[in-house]
Amino acid sequence: MWRLIKLLLRLGLSLLVLIGSFMLYDYLLTEAAVLYQLWATGTSQRAELADDMGFGMLGLLVVLPLSALLALATSLPVWLKTK
User: Which regions span the lipid bilayer (predicted)?
Assistant: First the structure.
């Protein structure tokens, strides 16, 4: 019984770290992508990026997978250390 409770606490903590770190990394990488697109396109406002198809592709193909990998790399030590 105690092993099950310990496993559930370990799983809950790891999932909490995974979700929290994914949201944090996604926000930070999205802001970095916005700044990069502002610099690369020479625009001065975020509203001008609305019609830029490359910005959507950058977010979908670079930011989301990188956020997921970083979140997994952050939660893996938590899973391994909480035995």
Answer: 7-25, 55-80
